[in-house]
Each structure stands twice: as C-alpha cells, then as structure tokens.
Recover the amino acids of this structure.
C-alpha cells in the first residue's frame, strides 16, 4: 500500500509538472463540494483563464484486468467527480470542465501483487453467509481466510474477540511469571512490588480484554 501510494504521488507530480510547462494553472489535492453537499477531494485540477476550460484529472494505479478497464475507470471517475464540476466553474470562473479518470497499470510501473502472500476475509455476523473460498481478479486468485493479525491483534471473520482476549490474558500471565522471582525478591520493598505488578502485566490484559469483552457482549 505504501509503495502504491508513493508511486501514485510520483505519477500525480509528473502530470502536474507537464501541465504547468504547457502554461496550465494546476492545483493538487483540492477539497471541494458536490452538488449534494458532500465533500470530495480531487488529485489534480488544471485550467486556463484564457480559454475558460478546465480538467479534473484523477490518476489511479490498479492491477490490469482487461481491455475495457481504462474506459471503466474513466467512467467511474466521471460518476464520482462530475457532481463537483459546478463548484469549480464558480470557484475558477470557468465555462467548461472535463473529468478524466486516468488508469496507470500497476505492472507497467513494476508493481505486482503476490497472490501467495495476499489473502482476503469477509466479516459478517451471519453464520450462514456463503463463503467462496477464493476470489479471482483478472488472472489472479486470492485465498479467503477466517482470521488474521492486524497491528498485533487477531481479527476474525465473525468479529469474535474471545480469542484475542485469551491471547492477551496469556501474555499478561507470561509477563507476570517471567518476573515473579524478581517481584518476590527481598531486595524489592513491598510497596514497589505492589506498584510494579499492575504496570508490568496489567496493561497487556486490561487494554484489550475489557474493551473487547464489552464489544462481544454488545453484539450477542
């Protein structure tokens, strides 16, 4: 994700630079309002006060899936950003604005997905939901999983937090027993032992178990 974001920023910068060399006024990462009042952010708007014409350009990096993909991406971006055209017409006093969805093939710039290291998960409280096992995107197949670790926490497809609570309790217990001899040492005063036990093991348990238990109980 970070690599893709960096490439997209590079592509956006190259497009903006090229347009500026052609004497277009270019602004990047512009927040705006759609006709329904919702806020949007566009990557690039280029316009000319002389011709009163402008372009909303949204470059997108995606894995290539078919010959119609460029047209599909362009139409997708038109649907998203067309409602912002009136806003920019007023803001920059333009008469005509065109939306362009620009597809950048990931493989063309050296970005590829490793299907062996990429999995997906469907989260639902419905125990009877149909699970496909694998999903195909173009010529790539991705395996479905029931759980995975995210930022050190276990996430399951039914949002069952009991496993995570148990893991954190075990971590707290293991942490406590690893320093049990130190805490029972006569060299450590009673007051220090009393204060150190919660600070060493309590945070590992309490930060997760109480919060996740309330979440689990509220859902069942």
């Amino acid at each position: 994700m970070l690599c893709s974001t960096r490439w997209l920023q590079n592509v956006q910068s190259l497009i903006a630079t090229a347009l500026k060399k052609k004497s277009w006024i270019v602004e990047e990462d512009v927040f705006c309002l759609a006709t329904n009042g919702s806020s949007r952010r566009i990557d690039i708007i280029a316009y000319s006060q002389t011709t009163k014409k402008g372009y909303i350009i949204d470059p997108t990096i995606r894995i290539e899936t078919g010959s119609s993909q460029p047209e599909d991406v362009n139409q997708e971006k038109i649907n998203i950003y067309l409602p912002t055209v009136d806003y920019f017409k007023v803001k920059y006093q333009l008469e005509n604005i065109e939306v362009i969805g620009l597809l950048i093939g990931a493989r063309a710039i050296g970005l590829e997905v490793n299907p062996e290291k990429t999995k997906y998960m469907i989260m639902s409280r419905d125990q009877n939901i149909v699970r496909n096992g694998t999903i195909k995107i173009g010529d790539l197949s991705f395996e479905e999983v029931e759980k995975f670790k995210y930022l050190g926490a276990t996430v399951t497809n039914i949002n069952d937090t009991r496993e995570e609570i148990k893991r954190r309790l075990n971590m707290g217990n293991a942490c406590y027993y690893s320093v049990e001899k130190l805490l029972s040492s006569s060299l450590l005063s009673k007051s220090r032992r009393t204060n150190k036990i919660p600070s060493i093991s309590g945070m590992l348990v309490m930060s997760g178990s109480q919060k996740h238990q309330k979440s689990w109980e509220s859902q069942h």
The CA atoms of residues 74 and 101 lie 4 Å apart. Residues 207-217 have pLDDT under 50 and may be disordered. The radius of gyration is 27 Å.
